UniProtKB/TrEMBL annotation:
One of its GO terms (molecular function) is protein heterodimerization activity. It is found in: Chromosome; Nucleus. Keywords: Chromosome, DNA-binding, Nucleosome core, Nucleus. Residues 1-23 are annotated as: Disordered. GO terms for cellular component: nucleosome; nucleus. Residues 13-91 form the Core Histone H2A/H2B/H3 domain. The lineage of its organism: Eukaryota, Fungi, Dikarya, Basidiomycota, Pucciniomycotina. PROSITE patterns: HISTONE_H2A. It comes from Rhodotorula diobovata. The nucleosome is a histone octamer containing two molecules each of H2A, H2B, H3 and H4 assembled in one H3-H4 heterotetramer and two H2A-H2B heterodimers. The octamer wraps approximately 147 bp of DNA. Belongs to the histone H2A family. Its main location: nucleus. This is Histone H2A. It holds the Pfam family Histone.
Amino acid sequence: MATGKSSGGKEGDKKTTKTRSAKAGLQFPVGRIDKFLRKGQYAKRIGAGAPVYLAAVLEYLTAEILELAGNAARDNKKSRIIPRHLQLAIRNDEELDRLLEHITISQGACTCLLWSERP
């Protein structure tokens, strides 16, 4: 008859696994990025630190864009970020604009130039 107790060993010895994302203190999935790097065949060998570094960079860029887009939404008295807020956030930041200058954001509308600002 089973009484519900496990036989043998101590009960508190179970080891919890910690993901690589948790070890690095990241929200982005390091394991998934590692899988994509290996599957994409960008190189024959992928170092152990490469997916961690890439996840950290992607998380930083995402946080930066979302913070600026949240500010743009708040300036427009909205509580939800829409593509227009992303567009405004990226185009008003010099570094992000240079990084994403060839990117088209769907439903982002245009950032109109004044005649005095034309090149």
